[in-house]
Design goal:
Largest sheet of chain B: 7 strands, mixed
Shape of chain B: globular
Number of strands of chain B: 11
Strand content of chain A: over 45%
Order of helices and strands of chain A: EEEEEEEEEEEEE
Structural class of chain A: mainly beta
Radius of gyration of chain B: 13 Å
Number of strands of chain A: 13
Oligomer: heterodimer
Helix content of chain B: under 10%
Strand content of chain B: over 45%
Distance between the termini of chain A: 36 Å
Order of helices and strands of chain B: EEEEEEEEEEE
Structural class of chain B: mainly beta
Number of helices of chain B: 0
Radius of gyration of chain A: 13 Å
Largest interface: A-B, 23 and 21 residues
């Protein structure tokens, strides 16, 4: 199975500041035939179901604010929130869908400092 | 609007069985690949398995911890996907979510809680 490892496990950031979450996969998620990274980010707010934020490593899902951005390729990926808002408090998960057997990272809890 | 509504959760003894359902609406179900993802209390997300659309073969794939015990099926006439869970273990205790998408989970249901305990 492809192992997804997020860092850090916990992050506290002041309102209006930048938040950065990293995710590393145990093998490349870049499919050479279409040059796409089979990688996504999800947000799970307290008491809610997860929600898709970003797919193909850098494409925001419909309605996702542009303060959220995804970057990276191959095995190393980053989710950046450019200016943290109170409503961004959540657990963030990375996911690979390169393999038939889909796997998630362990999650990063983001709170307000 | 895409809607996924799970049902069928509850309390079951170790070794027992349970069948979860997920009723879908707001998209073309017959073309959709459907997945189940679970979340143990206070823990992260774990992919359980997925079933392809009938036009893509209708086959299912499973995560190692559930392979041989869980079976995912679909009824396109009812826009519903199921997971039959047999030989349940205490470590299967979780909220089970239904999702839609070929790999990406484009939409999620509200989840249904399964508790495996004696």
């Amino acid at each position: 199975d492809i192992v997804m490892t997020q860092s850090p496990d916990f992050l506290a950031v002041s309102l209006g500041e930048r938040a950065t979450i990293n995710c590393k996969s145990s093998q490349s998620l870049l499919y050479s035939s279409n040059n796409k990274n089979y990688f996504a980010w999800y947000q799970q707010k307290p008491g809610q179901s997860p929600k898709l934020l970003i797919y193909w490593a850098s494409t925001r899902d419909s309605g996702v604010p542009d303060r959220f951005s995804g970057s990276g390729s191959g095995t190393d990926f980053t989710l950046t929130i450019s200016s943290l808002q109170a409503e961004d408090v959540a657990v963030y998960y990375c996911q690979q869908y390169y393999s038939t057997l889909i796997t998630f990272g362990q999650g990063t809890r983001l709170e307000i400092k | 609007e895409v809607q996924l509504v799970e049902s069928g959760g509850g309390l079951v003894k170790p070794g027992g069985s349970l069948r979860l359902s997920c009723a879908a609406s707001g998209f073309t179900f017959t073309k959709a690949w459907m997945s189940w993802v679970r979340q143990a209390p206070g823990k992260g997300l774990e992919w359980v398995g997925r079933i392809k659309s009938e036009s893509d073969g209708g086959t299912a794939d499973y995560a190692a911890p559930v392979k041989g015990r869980f079976t995912i099926s679909r009824d396109d006439s009812k826009n519903t996907v199921y997971v039959q869970m047999n030989s349940l273990k205490t470590e299967d205790t979780a909220v089970y979510y239904c999702t839609t998408g070929p790999g990406i989970a484009l939409a999620w249901g509200q989840g249904t809680l399964v508790i495996v305990s004696s």
